[in-house]
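Hi F.,

I've been meaning to write this up properly since the lab meeting, where we talked about keeping a consistent format for the predictions we share between groups. The idea is simple: the sequence comes first, exactly as it goes in, then the structure tokens exactly as they come out, then a line or two of notes. No screenshots and no reformatting. I'm using this chain as the first example so we have something concrete to point to.
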Amino acid sequence: MKYRLLLLLVFLGVSPAFAQTLQSAGGAIDRNAFPDPMAPKDPNAAKSVPNGKSGRAALDDSTKLIYGPQTMSYILEEDVLNGRGAKNSVDTSLHLFHRYLFQERTGFLKAHLGNEGTAVRTIYVKRPDQIGSQMGYNAYMPHSFATDEVKYYQTKSPYSDVEYYLGAGGQTRLNFTFARNIDSLWNMGFEIQRQVSDKFLTDQKYKTGNQTLTEQWGVLFQTNFRTRNNRYRLLAHLNYFDQGIQDQGGIQLLNGLDPTTALNYTDNGALFANSGVQSNDSFIKFHFYHEFIGFKGLQFFQRIDVENRTAKFKDTDFAINLSKLYYPKNYSTQTDSLYNENQWQSFAHQTGLKGIFRGFTYRTYFKQRYWDVNNPMVGLKKNRLENYVGLFLQQKFNDKIDFTADGEYLLGSDYRLQANFISPFFQVKASRTSISPSVAQKWAYNAAFQWDKSFTNVLFDELTGSIELKSKNVYFRPTATIQRIADYIYFDTLATAKQTSDAIGVFRTGFSVGGTYKRFEWSALVLANTKTGPDVIRMPALVANANLALNVQYKKLLYLQFGVDLQHQSAYFADAYMPVMQQFHLQDKYEIPAFVQADAYVSLRINRVRLFFKMQNATQGLLNSNYYTAYLHPAMGRSFGYGVRWLLFD
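Output, unedited:
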């Protein structure tokens, strides 16, 4: 593995230099408009140096900084792939800056196990984005760097972004981003993420002073290069992720204690009282994209992906937890411990043609992907070679109206069809997806769970629509989603994979609304959900959140924002979590009560430094007591958090 990593790093750095030889041969409100006193008036204007001095010696009290948010930008791979040439600016606003926890940054539409860095699930069922066989161990993947969200920078000066957030329960996240241009055509950079959290349920290690619950490292190296004539472009990154967690299993209900009463206590014991349960998930991924533009209407592109991943679980107190009925069965003669490990490898390349002609964009490709998964505990292995073909079509009628059709087919198996129409007044999107069951759904082999099943493909039909209504200071967007899910695969109350024979219908409607009035800004999201068919997808009937803020400016140097965040979720039988296979599963024992949470905060900005101070769950004990984010996993109670983010451009 060390040699592979070394080769990838060398390749990441050398490829742009090698590619450089080719050129020798041939309605919503703009939140980033918040005033920036450090922004240069004309970043491209020549700067005179008084008295012949240079560097720091030329600076005095009247000198304006040359570099800032306006002198740098970033692109996403999707922008390059679709030929949009979009340049995105870094966010410098205070709008929702205080939302530093994971579930807050997702608009409260995802939930974890109460602490930052724990297993994640979506509140509403989500249509899969990828077809083909997947590993299916996805509880920690939302915390890692996503390939389609990697930012490739263009900077006129060295750029750094420092983020540090600290909340109650040791919920700490540190992110550091650095990027700089080697020359005007080649940029390199890296991003480091460190995230930890502490236990707030008591177990044996907690009593001895070891309070660590989760530890996570993420490291991303990225580079992008283009030739001077813009005929060749390269984007590449190396992505490393390592997540470790001391699983606690939720609250232990002793002496007739019920879940509702347990929420009134702050010293609840953990179900895994002996601290003998641990999970680890780690991967290293290499992604490479390059394109050659022969003509505007005929371009060549290629993607290469390599992934190596290992997901582990161990319970050295298996016999004790088996007696508590946490596990449904023991398949092994060994009762003192339980181990589960899956080693995953995949290799993929995608090669195709694309182009743009009179506002019409097309892309067609052929893709091959080989994957294998190995269970080293018993020497079992599965693998598969997959061949795909794909087609993308887009017609832009003008800058505000376009139609997109997208399809991908895994030969002999999965497929994905999608169409999207966007106009200034409404948007409609329709899709059909047939996807193979994941490895975790089809195959399990450990002391507590064993099966090898032949499930059929799951079919998702989805139709979504929204209407755009806005004036100068207010927007209103009604939305509606209809889903039909056939042959749905779920995990039952014993955490065993099952497949439905009847289709499930989901209807969700709601709206987002927001605007500004003088110094106030506000936004809200309301979603109402109902479903028909087998009761194997548990979702709240109503989800709502809102934000109200007051902006204050002091002498053009200090910008403050005082506000309150509100979120509500109706009662429902939220899923339980089984860490052995990183799966959320059904439970019929306890209906999670409805709750309202209010967070009060103040954010401020001085030059390019932003800070916030926040009281989370400030109304606990007033509007309601604490609540559960998953079965027997309580949310963080009333707590104080703060954070700082500093952008540096030289």
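Notes:
The longest helix spans residues 2-19.
Confidence is low (pLDDT under 50) at residues 1-63.

If this format works for you, I'll send the rest the same way.

G.
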